[in-house]
Design a protein that fits this description.
Blueprint (H helix, E strand, L loop, with lengths): L3 E2 L1 H11 L3 E4 L8 E3 L4 E10 L2 E8 L7 E7 L14 E5 L11 E4 L3 E4 L4 E3 L22 E4 L5 E4 L3 E5 L14 E3 L12 H6 L8 E6 L4 E6 L4 E2 L17 E8 L5 E7 L2 E10 L15 E2 L3 E2 L2 E5 L4 E3 L2 E8 L4 E9 L2 E2 L7 E8 L8 E6 L2 E6 L3 E8 L5 H8 L2 E3 L5 E5 L4 E7 L5 E5 L3 E3 L6 E9 L4 E8 L1
Antiparallel strand pairs: 1-32, 2-31, 3-31, 4-5, 5-6, 6-7, 8-9, 9-10, 11-12, 12-13, 13-14, 15-16, 16-17, 18-19, 19-20, 20-21, 22-23, 23-25, 24-25, 25-26, 26-27, 26-28, 29-30, 30-31, 32-33, 33-36, 34-35, 34-37, 37-38
InterPro entries: Secre_tail (IPR026444)
Pfam families: Por_Secre_tail (PF18962)
Protein name: T9SS type A sorting domain-containing protein
């Protein structure tokens, strides 16, 4: 007699394995991918704002890279035609005598804020009402700029913090005539690039900010109103992020509880990589992995791996883009949890289907989360998007998911038994390819081979659940 397996059992099993499922979003661009077009070079910056995606690349139409191109996409990957001219505009690439590239460090619903101090309108022109003819002052040895939730701007130099008003003028009510002197210095002034701004200086609660100084391997918490570092944070004001190894941080992610996951390489052996977790107090979590760390394997499924310098975090999963050691290189996604290597779509390595000519993976691939989507920014002008089907549900969602049952394994017909109104049922294989789609709760599955499949169920209230199903 066939048994109906209650979905809760499947969810518990998924939770124990802590795996996630990724489905290629075929509604994004051309079957899940967007190409920004020809004559574009390296990625300078990207940002998400509501349902928009902003991307900035070098413009290669001029051999001297005089301009960069800023493009705005709609949520479906199409050009946002009310931005610039038909969805994009050009700006001068370099802004100082060091030939540092100008990039977007922040955006809001009306403006683009540049590391050069300029503020652009969405039509591609400088905002003449901002600062001095559209630009704030630039200071020697600037390290980062951060747009605060209040709309004010802070600028960090080696020893000072300056604050500017929403109109781009020095805020003379801040500190002494608009600036404060910090009680310790920050030395990364030779690194004015987007990845540093996004990676190493996240804002925290209570007017605090984390600052990572790669030259001294210091990760500290500072109050950006007073300029004083928190000496109770970590050990003597320095966060613990490795367990005795000579690790250097490539990126860290701050979690909702203000702890953070650190992605490091071993300074004594740069081919070795590891993950650690630091509590919100700044102390290392020695229960994470083995003795406080997860050593990332250099070989998975017989494939020699090159680790990218970016990673992302979702629901206890730490997803890292990796390349194989052949040429041209294939791009995979590897997933780790607090206990080590886990899976995506039941696989130790998820093949993204992307092959790249890149020689060195460093700083060439970005991975990011927005809402229920995972984005890959690859090889200068290529964006791929997946839908994340979480195996973790809130109590109400769990109760709703448990009310959707089916006979598992199934054969040539799959029936959903539920009182919940279902809008759409989609069946994917383990590689994320869409095989069946139905608005009915009864699916004819004669075309499916024996194997493991992923059901994506969308309810009438637009709740989305993923479930594994087996055909035998």
């Amino acid at each position: 007699m066939k048994k109906i397996f209650i979905t809760a059992i499947m969810l518990i099993a998924s939770f124990c394995n802590a795996q996630i499922n990724l489905i290629l979003d075929t509604n994004f661009g051309n079957n899940g991918t967007v190409s920004l077009g020809p004559n574009l070079g390296g990625l300078l910056s990207y940002h998400f704002l509501n349902d928009k995606i902003m991307v900035q690349n070098y413009d290669l139409t001029d051999p001297f890279l005089i301009y960069s191109k800023i493009t705005m996409l709609n949520n479906n990957g199409s050009l946002s035609t009310d931005f610039g001219i038909g969805g994009s505009f050009l700006i001068p690439t370099y802004y100082n005598s060091n030939n540092d590239a100008d990039f977007v460090h922040s955006i809001d619903s009306s403006y683009l804020y540049m590391i050069s101090g300029k503020r652009y309108l969405y039509n591609g022109t400088l905002d003449p009402t901002y600062g001095n003819n559209g630009q704030t002052q630039i200071y020697p040895n600037e390290i980062y700029r951060k747009l605060l939730p209040t709309g004010k701007l802070i600028i960090r130099t080696v020893n000072n913090i300056y604050q500017y008003t929403q109109s781009g003028n020095l805020d003379t009510t801040f500190g002494v005539n608009g600036s404060i002197f910090t009680n310790s210095f920050l030395t990364n002034y030779g690194y004015p690039i987007f990845n540093y701004q996004q990676t190493f200086v996240p804002l925290l609660s209570s007017n605090s900010i984390l600052e990572y100084d790669g030259n001294y391997s210091q990760l500290r918490k500072m109050n950006y109103i007073t300029g004083i570092y928190d000496t109770s944070f970590g050990v003597n004001g320095n966060a613990q992020f490795n367990n005795g190894n000579s690790g250097s941080i490539m990126k860290f992610h701050v979690l909702d509880d203000y702890s953070f996951i650190n992605y490091l390489f071993d300074s004594n052996n740069t081919s070795l990589y590891l993950l650690t977790r630091t509590f919100s107090t700044g102390l290392l979590d020695y229960s994470f992995g083995t003795n406080g760390k997860i050593d990332l394997p250099l070989v998975i499924n017989g494939i020699n791996l090159l680790y990218n310098q970016d990673f992302t975090v979702t629901q206890g999963n730490y997803i890292i883009p990796v390349l194989d050691d052949n040429f041209p290189r294939k791009l995979y996604l590897a997933n780790f949890t607090n206990n080590g290597l886990s899976t995506i779509n039941s696989q130790n390595l998820l093949d993204t289907g992307i092959t790249t000519q890149m020689v060195n993976p460093s700083d060439k691939i970005f991975i990011s989360l927005k809402d229920n989507y995972l984005y890959l920014f690859v090889n200068t002008n290529y964006i791929k998007r997946y839908i994340i089907l979480q195996n973790y549900l809130s109590t109400n969602e769990n109760e709703l998911s448990e009310s959707i049952n089916f006979i598992n394994p199934f054969q040539n017909e799959l029936n959903l038994f539920t009182n919940t109104k279902v809008k759409l049922v989609e069946v994917f294989d383990e590689q994320g390819r869409l095989l069946l789609r139905s608005k009915d709760t009864k699916l004819n599955t004669t075309s499916l081979l024996k194997g493991i499949y992923i059901l994506k169920i969308t309810t009438a209230t637009n709740k989305v659940f993923s479930k594994k199903a087996i055909k035998n």
